[in-house]
Amino acid sequence: MPGPHPVEGSVGVSGMSTCLEGLKEAHGRPWPKELIALGPEESAQQMVLRRIQELSDSDQQDPFMLADLDILASRHQAFCQALPQVSPFYAVKCNSSPWVLRVLAALGTGFDCASQVELEQVLGLGVAPSRIIYANPCKPASHIRYAARHGVQLLTFDSEEELTKVAQHHPGARLLLRLRTQDSQSIFPLSTKFGASLEACGHLLTSARDLGLAVVGASFHVGSNCQTPQSFTQAIADCRCVFEMGRGAGHDMSCLDIGGGFPGTEDSGPKFEEMARVISAALAQDFPEERGVKVIAEPGRFYMESVCTAAVNIIAKKAVLEPGGSRKLMYYLNDGHYGSFRLGHREPVPRVPIVVKEFCSEPPLFPCTLYGPTCDASDRLFLEDVRLPELDVGDWLVFPSMGAYTSSMSCSFNGFLPATICYTMGPQLRSLLEAEPESRVG
Ligand SMILES: Cc1ncc(COP(=O)(O)O)c(C=O)c1O
Q: Which residues form the Orn/DAP/Arg decarboxylase 2 C-terminal domain (predicted)?
């Protein structure tokens, strides 16, 4: 079998990286073996190819995910540069891998948690409760009690029933009223499930006051992978109305949460910088800085999508003749809908992987259905076929930009375990983590 060689973007493998296992970090513990320190000239892409080579040479061709933590740090920097007036509270649901959270904790982001387990994960890193928002408008009572016991005060709500629960289980909470948005243009809309209409807000604000609860602001989410930056403009203007209503009801309105929805890559749809310009203009109009309102956001996809690369192996293959006589291929991969590709059915266009194989000349392409490994016939990566060359069992496919809503949504249906994750980091990030208190890196 030839060595790994991507059809696109071929790179060599230098053999310079070190597994950080055995290296002692500041607190005398060994670094875990899933963490790879990149040498000065090395890239995470080279590590993917090296790992593929190692696995191909062994008898284990399990799928894996490689997370480039330096990209995560640069996404954080890009967010803060484009929206300096907004504090990011990373949406843990997007990717809750331990090293992702550790790096973000060290970089100083806040965190948006959706459940007790996510709260536990973030608090367990030594993050102060004041850096956490429990941003699920419909929460189990026991999780609300957990937040109360651990000092997590900032909570969202969008209904009277939630207010009743919070009054009973967390009377000292500081609440943000989540507003419904016009998010039908987003790839993953959320407003059918969450958000109060503007008309309902007046009543909710007086109900909160009558229950003795403090509403401190408003929040919204324009839908994940928002395609229309103007959705932010409208939602921010609506929040201004909610702030006025809240103040009228006697609440001290001081926090605006503009949610997530920022693009994960620049491949299609609106560019992040353009979106940030639209948001900044809307904030300047409706929440000018001199009013002293704290503005936060809950980015997930923007931070994580480009961080991870998934490598999957072809475990079985069939060739079929279509009614017109044309040839079609069915590839069965060891990762699929129940693994890293849960959202593949809902993405507007299928992702075309990089083929890790050497060809003498430009190979012909065939329509290919990419199936996952389970016995469920709907376990396919995408609803549409992709065009790929003729490949063999044992060949590898690489999918870049697989960091958002992938590992965090995978399960072990049919006994196929989620892809293992390894992480790369360069020297700068490593120094930052070494300087962290023990609770963050242990
Ligand atoms: C409440 C909340 N905040 C933030 C996010 C993150 O959104 P995104 O990944 O689009 O930035 C989500 C995603 O579903 C969400 O439900």
A: 306-403
